[in-house]
Amino acid sequence: MANTTELRQVEPTVWKACAGTSVQIPTVDSRVYYFPQGHAEQASSPPFLSPLVSSQPLILCRVAAVLFLANSDTDEVFAKIRLLPLLRSPNPDCSSRGGDVDVDVDEDAVVSFAKILTPSDANNGGGFSVPRFCADSIFPPLNFAADPPVQTLSITDVHGVVWEFRHIYRGTPRRHLLTTGWSKFVNHKKLIAGDSVVFMRNRRSGEFFIGVRRAVRSNADCGGRWNSPVGSVRVKTEEDGNRKEGFSRNGKGRVSAESVSEAAELAAQGMGFEVVYYPRVGWADFVVKAETVEESLSVFWTAGVRVKMGMETEDSSRMTWFQGTVSSATVPDNGPWRGSPWRMLQACEPHILLTLMEKLRVHFDLQTTRVYVVICLTTTCTTAVASGPASAFASSSPCDYAPSSPPSSSSSSSSFLLLFFFFFLLFLLFFFFFFFSKFEPNSS
Length: 444
Description:
By secondary structure, the chain is an alpha+beta fold. Helices cover about 20% and strands about 25% of the residues.
């Protein structure tokens, strides 16, 4: 990772828009829990962690500082968080403010729109097809009396570089396009189909910004389902990214194993440490608000607990909710991470979701706790990626919770009856058609 002292800090509202609406960043001076296992899962290779670290699977800390930054090679936003371990206090309200971003940040100050690039958009010799909503809500209004309606846009990226694009309304049927300047942007940012671009406008200043979210090639480990080794050194593996691009597209490689080991060891020793967090689809938060963790630890999780699963699309355009049920809740009794609540929940989800998993940011809301999960497409169950009995806690929002009672099957039964009724009507239609066709009067 590049030295953060050389990186330009990103405006928090712009950072939040680039990261996505579901990303949670704790406030300065708030109490949080740090989970070494979750941190290790984001490393470029399995880090070495001593028995001292594994004996403390979650560590209470205070947030000392937060920097909102962007990777100089990929434009991906990340946060650098300074944490100070605390002695567990009987008074959980001490120096705790909660929240997701800095209290002075006005999230409504920036309006944004994200689009996943099509092969045509990512063609370095073509243009960018602007969705109508983006043109109307983000870009300045065009003069449709002109022929053709055209304007030049000056848009700033996360590094402060200004890019100029020609915005025109033309074609059959007519549509909004970015032409001149777009190919240069695509080449410089090494964009491919599947990457996302985020257009933003500051409501107050009228400034325009552009960000990038990189497409991630799925891995066989479904997001890192391994438990970090303790007491044995692992050899750092080479990144499998595209060497021509100069960075990895498998989601790994941004955080070194050495930096994770250093942070975890300092945390276990009660010393201040820094972590780097890249918001990524399918990855669990490893720095979580203390209130959320403590509330979830007080819940008796058991098989049969009904949960709601909210799924945010990669372009952050919508959220869809589905019902699920906890199938297993276990804490390891032995092994290096004995007693760790990380990944203790396993929840089954509807079969219909299996086709949606690769491009969806998935998380569970368990009572007052949002639990991020990693999906393995070869099974009908999801494994919770988190700490505490509720997994990797990220927010406190109410949801349906009914221990020891399986989800109702009325929804699936109703769907079956409707489908049966539809085919029955279709059968009757064909039956009457063929029946009456045999009795048509002979014109001769």
